[in-house]
Amino acid sequence: MNAKELRSQDASALKETLMGLLKEHFEMRMQHKSAQLDDTSKLKNIKRSIARVKTIIEEKKV
């Protein structure tokens, strides 16, 4: 998701998106530790998406 799509969502939808991303990040970390994750660049992309969502949530608070 890009920032433009995220900014069009309301706060509750952003929180749901964040929870889904955090869950996905946890699952990928477990796969990485057990050597089941083939493409480790996905971890980086998920972390950036989480940061993007958190930033937009904070912007909407102001």
Features:
62 residues, Helix Hairpins
What does this structure look like?
- The protein is mostly helical.
- The protein has a single domain, classed as Helix Hairpins (Orthogonal Bundle), CATH 1.10.287.
- Helix content is 79%, strand content 0%.
- The protein contains 3 helices and no strands.
- Helix 2 runs antiparallel to helix 3.
- The longest helix is centred in the middle third of the chain and has 23 residues.
- The chain is elongated.
- The chain starts with a helix and ends with a helix.
- The model has no long low-confidence stretch (mean pLDDT 94).
Task: Sum this structure up briefly.
Helices cover 79% and strands 0% of the residues. It has three helices and no strands. The chain is elongated and about 40 Å long.
